[in-house]
Amino acid sequence: MICELKEREYEKIRPLFKELEWNLITSAVIDRTSPGRIFADQVKNPRTAFMCTVEGYYLSGYDGNDEFNNSLNRLIFERIFAGNTLRKGETDIAIGFHPDSWRGKMSVIFNGRIPLIATRRHYICTKLKADHWRDHVPNGFQVHRIDEKLLRTPGLDIPEHLIGWMKTNWRSISDFMSRGFGYCTLCGRRIISWSVADCVSGDACEIGIHTREDFRRQGLATLTAAAAVDHALSSGLKYVGWHCDEYNLGSIGVAEKVGFELERGYIQYYACSNAAHHLEETAQTHFRAKRYREAIECYEEFFATPPEELPQWFREILPLELGTHYFRMAYAKAAIGDDNGALKYLENAVDNGWLYLDFLSKCEEFRRVHGTSTWNNILAKIQRKLKSR
C-alpha cells in the first residue's frame, strides 16, 4: 500500500528523514516552505516514505515492504513518467535514499528500466573564501540582488530559466521575494549569471548557479555565487549547501573558489521517462566510466531508434548533440582498436558539427590512424568548416 500524505501530516515522517537532512530540501518540504509531495506506507505510523521535491526524489525508512515497493514502481511509471511532476518538463527521476540497503531494491522500484547511478558531491560553506569578490567585478558588469525593483527595470533581459527557478522552487515570485534570495551579474541590460537559493530551512540554505553559455569561463559564476553566499552568511544563516555531479568540473571549481568544502560524496539511482532517452543516457554513463564496449552497444541501439519513438523535445535538441554522440562513439571504437569504425563515426561527428580540431589532435586513441587518407580528409574537412564559420 502507498498513500499520499496531506501537508498537515508531513511532520510524521520527519524522523524517517533524519539521516537525509543534509539534503536540505527534505527539511524544507516538511517545513512546507518548499513545494513537495510525500507518499508513505501508512498515515498513522509511517515506516517508509517517498518524497517528491523540486530538487529530486528521496526514499527513506524500512525497505522490506514489497507491496510499497511495487506500488512505488507503478507511481513512477504511471504518474511521474507520465508528467505528473513538480518541476515542469521533467524528463527523469533521480532518487536519493537512506539506509544503504535500498540499493538492493532499486531493480524493483525501477522495474522497466535498468537504473543508472549518478555520483554526486555535497559541499557546505560556513566562511566565504572569495570575500573580496566586489573588487573583481569586471568593467562593464554589475552584481545586483534579485529584487522586485530589479525585475521591474525597463528593457531588462531576464532569462526564462531564472523566472522558472523562482516560480518552481518557491511556488511564486512573491514567495521567493519574501522567503528566498538571489544575486545576478548584469552586462548592460542583460542578466548573464544568476545564483538563487534553492531552499531555506532553519539556519541553512542551499543555492545553485547558472551562467549564459557565451559568458562562461570568465569568473562571473564565482562572483555571482560569492555574492549570494555573502548575503546568506551575513543574514545569519550558519551554512550554505551546494550539490553537483562528480563529473561537473565547472560547478566543482566555482564552489571551491567561493569557499565551499566537500561534506560528502553520495550516489543516486536514476532513470529517464522515455526509453530511447534512457538508452542515450546509459551510453553516456558507460562512456564516462570507460566501459567502451558497453557504450558502443548502447549507442548502436540508440542510433537505430526510429525518430517517432523519441519525444518531441528530444527530437528538437538531438541535432545539437548528435555530433558529440558520434564523437564519443568514434572515441570508444578507437579505444577498443576498431580503427575503421572510429574513422566512420568521426566523419559522422564532423558532418554533424563536431569541430574540435585541437582536442582531436591530442587524443592518443586515434594515434594509429594518423596519416591515413581518411584521417587527413577528416582534418581537412574540419578546417574548411571552421574557416566558413
Sum this structure up briefly.
The chain is an alpha+beta fold and 389 residues long.
Give the topology, please.
Layout: E1 3-4, H1 24-31, E2 36-40, E3 48-53, E4 56-61, H2 66-80, E5 92-98, H3 106-109, E6 116-125, E7 141-145, H4 148-151, H5 160-170, H6 173-179, E8 182-187, E9 190-201, E10 204-211, H7 220-234, E11 239-245, H8 249-258, E12 261-272, H9 275-288, H10 292-303, H11 312-335, H12 339-351, H13 357-361, H14 373-387
Parallel strand pairs: 4-5, 10-11
Antiparallel strand pairs: 1-2, 2-3, 3-4, 5-12, 6-11, 6-12, 7-8, 8-9, 9-10
Helix pairs in contact: 5-6, 7-8, 9-10, 10-11, 11-12, 12-14
Question: What does this molecule look like?
Answer:
- The protein is an alpha+beta fold and 389 residues long.
- The chain has three domains: 3-114; 125-263, Aminopeptidase (3-Layer(aba) Sandwich), CATH 3.40.630; 291-387, no CATH class.
- It contains 14 helices and twelve strands.
- Strand 2 (36-40) and strand 3 form a beta hairpin.
Rounded mean pLDDT is 95
Considering DSSP H and I runs of 4 or more, what fraction of the residues is helical? Answer: 40-55%
Order of helices and strands: EHEEEHEHEEHHHEEEHEHEHHHHHH
Q: What is the total number of structural domains? A: 3
End-to-end C-alpha gap: 59 Å
Q: Which structural class matches the secondary elements?
A: alpha+beta
- Unreliable runs: none
- Using the coordinates above, name the CATH class of the largest domain: Alpha Beta
Q: Which short descriptors sum up this protein?
A:
14 helices; alpha+beta; 389 residues; single chain; 12-stranded mixed beta sheet
